[in-house]
Amino acid sequence: GRVREKRRFATQQFGIERMRTLAAAAQCTLNDVVLAVCGGALRRFLLERDELPGQSLTAGIPVSVRPKDDEGTGNAISFIVASLGTDLPDAGERLMAIRTSVRHAKAHVQSLPRQAMTQYTMLLMAPTMLTLLTGIGGRTPPMFNITISNVPGPDKPLFFRGAEMVSIYPASIVTHGQALNITCESYAGQMNFGFTACHTTVPSMQKVAVYCADALAELEQIFLPKPAAKKRAPRKKKLPAT
Q1: Which of 171, 234, 210, 164 is nearest to 45 (CA)?
Q2: Apex 51 CA angle, 180 and 84, nearest 5
Q3: Which residues constitute the domain of residue 207?
Q4: Contact 205, 182 (CB under 8 A)
Q5: I want to staple 187 with a disulfide (CB 3.0 to 4.6 A). Which of 2, 55, 153, 217 is the partner?
Q6: Is 112 exposed, middle or buried (0-12, 13-18, 19+ CB in 10 A)?
Q7: What gap in Å lies between CA 188 and CA 168, rounded to an integer?
Q8: Residues whose CB falls within 8 Å of the CB of residue 24, separated by 6 or more in sequence, listed in order
């Protein structure tokens, strides 16, 4: 839909090691887990509003295309579109579908010659830019439903005149047809989520942040081994009194 001038902003935070442990158990990447958490939260949010589409929502995801041997400065970023699995009620199946979708999209980008990366990215984003320039954004189906970014941040705490920066939550932009943006930034062992949305188009958006915590816990129940129950020591029989 169309967006207006007012915004809502919400935050969420998870330990990076917690998410990496889940990613290792599910044999996927940290970014796959981020997408699955967001997909699960969005599915629940839309179900409650009776607005869940039959087809899965898709996410536009910035990805680095810098070769490992490239020591140059500046950005080397392309864009992929992947499924969020919101059409799948099972959280485990949703994560696996996201993993497959992301792998296929990345493989396609990585198969392109380096000289074609810029042209490919511009071609991919051209429909979105065209809708913004012509004013038809939000009146036609978008190329993807939401932008989800995962930005690497400092590994160690930062200080300013002795005061420690406790957390950092990224705020982004929304556009016509994409009234919600989710940006994550890692900082000092934490993954910080910033949810930016149009105030009127996405009411009660704070629920999405809360539902992300439930979606992560649900994935952990599926993929992480359950702790073994402690065996109780046999009770000693009382000797008869003499």
Answers
A1: 210
A2: 55
A3: 7-223
A4: no
A5: 153
A6: middle
A7: 10
A8: none
Give the span between the Cα atoms of 11 and 94, in whole angstroms.
Answer: 23
User: For residues 190 and 11, what is the distance between their CA atoms, to the nearest angstrom?
Assistant: 13
Structural domain includes residue 242: no
Q: Pick the residue with more confidence: 136 or 98? A: 98
Q: How far apart are CA 6 and CA 25, in angstroms?
A: 41
Phi-psi region of 138 (alpha: psi -120 to 50; beta: other; left: phi over 0): left
37-80 pLDDT, tens per residue? 999 999 999 999 999 999 999 999 988 766 566 665 556 677 89
Angle at 183 between CA 32 and CA 166, to 5 degrees: 105
Residue 137 lies in a domain: yes
Over residues 158-215, the pLDDT tens digits come to 999 999 999 999 999 998 888 999 999 999 999 999 999 999 889 899 999 999 999 9
**What single DSSP character describes residue 156?**
S
Helix residue ranges per DSSP H, 8-116 = 16-26, 30-48, 91-110
Dihedral of alpha carbons 224, 146, 193, 61, sign: positive
Count the domains in the chain: 1
* Residue type at position 66: R
| 90 inside domain | yes
**pTM for this predicted structure:** 0.85
CATH number at residue 143: 3.30.559.30
- Roughly how many angstroms between the first and final C-alpha of the chain, as a whole number? 85
Six-digit token string for 195: 């949810």
Taken as a whole, the chain contains a residue count of: 242
